[in-house]
């Protein structure tokens, strides 16, 4: 009787049953915020439940779950948000992987479910000093996206447009805050002048 040979799987191989290893994509995009200090931009980027304010095309961003005692605003590893684009019919659930690192100005999350064809996807957002302002850097690593019209170049282009839109909206928010502070200071000076 002839002995049958079993196929040998390479160490660390892919999805079992002879499946090829998953293609991995990784990259980074960034956008400049001239004249905007990193310390002013960071609170906006770190607002995990406010993606709808800063990302073009996203009109829904809400916490998934009961929200806990803090009303759902505490940012702890494992909390999940639901983001969606009503116009495009796209959605994702994203899990915070670690508490926002305020010293390094870094936020990491993973897509845990979506209707866009994502498997494993991890993103790191950072706000970096530099060039008379700051930059928002968006790095990603993921399995190849299994959806119509997706390629690594298409994902990078989509993220580049998103980070550009985010930078623009964060700059507008920081400018609006500065304008509001200036208005408050002006009112206080006027009140001091009337009282004096």
Automatic annotation (TrEMBL):
A Pfam family reported for this protein in Swiss-Prot or TrEMBL: Polyketide_cyc2
Keywords: Nucleus
Bias-annotated ranges (Acidic residues): 184-196
Gene3D superfamilies according to UniProt: 3.30.530.20
GO cellular component: nucleus
Primary location recorded for the protein, binned into one broad class: nucleus
PROSITE patterns: PROKAR_LIPOPROTEIN
Location in or out of the cell: Nucleus
Region (Disordered): 1-23, 176-196
PANTHER family: LACHRYMATORY-FACTOR SYNTHASE (PTHR33789), OS01G0199300 PROTEIN (PTHR33789:SF9)
Protein name, per record: Bet v I/Major latex protein domain-containing protein
